Amino acid sequence: LAEESPDSAYHGNGSSPEEEEAERMEDEEQERLLSYWQSVGRGHQVDVPRDMAEPIQQLTRSNNPQDRRTVPFTLIQRKENLGDLLYEKRQYGKAKWACIKMKEKQYEQSICLGFMKLMRYICEQNSSGLYLGITIPIVTIVHTNASQSEMTRSVTVAYYLPEVLQDEPPQPFDPDIIIEEWPSTIVYSRGFRGITNEDSIMREINILAEILESPELYLQDTFIIAGYTNPAAANRHNEIWFLERP
């Protein structure tokens, strides 16, 4: 019998010991990230399935602050009081967004499940087969009853398509995701930190309503939560947006 060369162990399957070690470490990292998201999901009563492992890893790897593109806007006005920023008035231009409507029992469930579906779309599950890149904020449209005392269950989670994809957006494989073109809109925006749930959102709506003092300025039953940090983060950076009446 011919003597087996020491290299034959990895020549057969095309992987060197170094490549196998790198692959093992990558698998461990994917498992670690999936476990983290699954534990966060349980806190929001959301099941994070195993097929999310790859999108989560890809998004985490590509989520350097310098790689994120911010949705472009024109600043119209900044309102301050004793150095504290009360709100900004901004104009967002006409643009295409990938949107998914959710109706879970709790707001946190809706944004987690909606965000996971959008993550799959961003991470290659689209007609281009490419990673589309993260844009911030990810926004959620919420609705309240007429008296602004509680939120309805219907929410829309939306991802702004990067400018290079605005003319020809890649089509989602998921039939629940719809590409919509939103008209140019003026918003009143105020920042807040922490988790977003029905209580914190209603609190922020009431705070900004008091500051603006003019209910006729904005829509009374439709608001936007803009999230600059992924839903798994504890101390999230968020904004509440009021939409100026057309």
From TrEMBL:
Q: Where do Acidic residues bias regions lie?
A: 17-29
Q: Which molecular-function annotations from GO does this UniProt entry contain?
A: heme binding
Q: Which InterPro entries match?
A: Reg_factor_effector_dom_sf, SOUL_heme-bd
Residues of the region (Disordered) are: 1-29
Cited Pfam families: SOUL
The family this protein is said to belong to: Belongs to the HEBP family.
Protein's recorded name: HEBP2 protein
Provenance organism? Mesembrinibis cayennensis
